[in-house]
Design a protein that fits this description.
By secondary structure, this protein is mostly helical. It is built from four helices and no strands. It is flat.
Length: 106
Amino acid sequence: MAWIALIIAGVLEVCWASGLKYSEGFTKPVPTIFTLVTMIGSFWLLALAMRTIPLGTAYAIWTGIGAVGAVIFGIVMLGEAASVGRLIAICMILGGIVMLKLFSPA
């Protein structure tokens, strides 16, 4: 259950990071509310997951999901560059996430 909470927390991190972009510095009410709600949900689920998953593992996976998701969102939805270097970096982050999961005691 903790791993499911952690994955959802990571997805919500992508949501709030994307919402932050659309809030334009918290000047637009709907994206701002979306950002704050998803941020709270993300942190709450991260805290829930950390009850059983070690801190370093949970935090690294949470930020990894957020980073990869934000880059993919930027490429797909915002037309950001999908260079070879960026795609290799995504693969490296994903490899690190998989290794952390495989070698985690929880």
